[in-house]
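The following record pairs a protein chain with its ligand, 1,2,3,4,5,6-hexahydroxy-cyclohexane.
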Amino acid sequence: MGTLMACKNQESVDDGGRSLIRSPSGACDGDLVDQATSSTPVFVYVLAFFSALGGFLFGYDTGVVSGAMLLIKKEMNLNALWQELLVSSTVAAAALSALTGGFLNGWLGRRICILVASAIFTAGGLLLSFAPDKGVLLVGRIIVGLGIGIASMTVPVYIAEVSPTHLRGQLVTINSLFITGGQFIASVVDGAFSYLSHDGWRYMMGLSVVPAVLQFFGFLFLPESPRWLLQKGFSQEASRVLSRIRGRSDVDEEFETIKASIDEEKDSGGDGPVILRILNHGPTRRALIVGCGLQMFQQLSGINTVMYYSATILQMAGVRDDKQAIWLAAATSATNFVFTFVGVWLVERVGRRKLTLGSLLGTGLSLSLLAVGFLLSAQHSPSITLHPVDLYNSSCSHYGSCESCMLDPSCGFCYRENTTEVYDSSCVPVDEASSDHAAWGRCSNQTDLSPFWAYNYCPTSYSWIILMGLILYLAFFAPGMGTMPWTVNSEIYPLWARSTGNACSAGVNWIFNVLVSLTFLHVAQFLTYYGAFFLYTALVVLGMFFIWACLPETKGLQLEDIEQLFNGPTCFCGDMSPNDDRHVQYAPVNNYNSCHSDNDGSDVD
Ligand SMILES: O[C@H]1[C@H](O)[C@@H](O)[C@H](O)[C@@H](O)[C@H]1O
């Protein structure tokens, strides 16, 4: 490997942008830096937009189901198992297809995979909106999941491969913006169609066809990634596409750098299944550990539990009307979306490492605030004052407070309240067909005069702490932990391992997504809600150690150079990040001629 060299465009110091363009000889090319940073052709934004529609569909299809489910379960009389199946089948299918997507990506290319994903999204959306019964709904949800898996691993790779170095982080992070944007739009659509109690869900699910068709037709006219083309030996096409994307004809330097790295890899005689080659090749194996670790900790921070649980949190805060709860849940996903902009803005300014660490720190603090809120609510949980005769002698009749009653999934809390206190409270079995009311007694038939029914939560006056924790959590999670795992994974693998590396890490993301959401209620049952949130806090602290110790800074490096960051030990314990400002000197290139190598000259080789 040649010495890692860096150039810094002085003009981009102010906004924090950094350019490192390496020619095959290792020399910095001032003109190239100039062209790359000063005139980014619009075309690259068009490419990023059409690819990020895949992220939008990922967000929309995972987000829309919660609101749609409220209507579907009534119309199709779904029990809890079917509801669970319709939600988790999509995520499980996404895990499977993300894992196999790596093979498809390397074989067919990024563009074909994006086309396939948008065709799958279209077919799934149509099937869902015309589904005659729950069986077809399940098939539709699985199909959509297959599309999500492929899109989630292909889109960041494609955007990273077409982006100029100085914009790569920002453009890939736009995909995350589209994910949270999709979740937000889904919640607004859920709110709007919730008034249409008959068939409203068909529109909610069916609307995803619009961006899917748009992406499909867009990609019919958009080019393949030049890096993939070159890897497959289509040199002329690769050079033509690269010039088109860069908006200029002199792309030789970049072209040669990519080619040199492909030739180098060919010379080293790689053979056999890519995953085995990754595992046998130190730097790539270490990159894979870091990439999968990031994705695992993203999900272990409990984002999807918090998002999913937001409606209940809002109910605890006293929002009882279903419609109002739906709209307030839209406010939650809006917070997630708005704070993702902060990530897009910061990624090229502060870099991936600091952004992720700062985000995790805030996420951990907010999780402990959430936990404290739940702890105080539990300690001041209303007691049960009425004990109606329970003919079936269910477990519900044994509880003394709302806290223990609501932690039992078969019971709910029935109560009246005035401005200061809860009174006339009882713990009764929930109706098996619908958790909206009790199986029998005062809360079994909801009228305006009947008492309130709380399933899965307790009324509390500490809900404001929980609400604050929720908002702070999203504000800290969204810019860093929500975005960086996808961005960093799109850039840390060498070309030959990029599809497989991203497939594995996206697969890890989806697997932990299923694990965390499926286990949440059980964990809450064993540890109580505050215990569950303290557990997530502990996992976030572990994640911070991992990221502090093992995540190098990739900002400003050309994709072909990033592999060198993993030449040392997997974890460099924070103070040895090879791309720290302390280790790489960026030379002012006002005159675009001066260029320094690392300060000790020894480099990361
Ligand atoms: O990066 C995304 C994003 O933060 C979403 O809000 C979340 O639902 C996904 O699981 C995650 O992968």
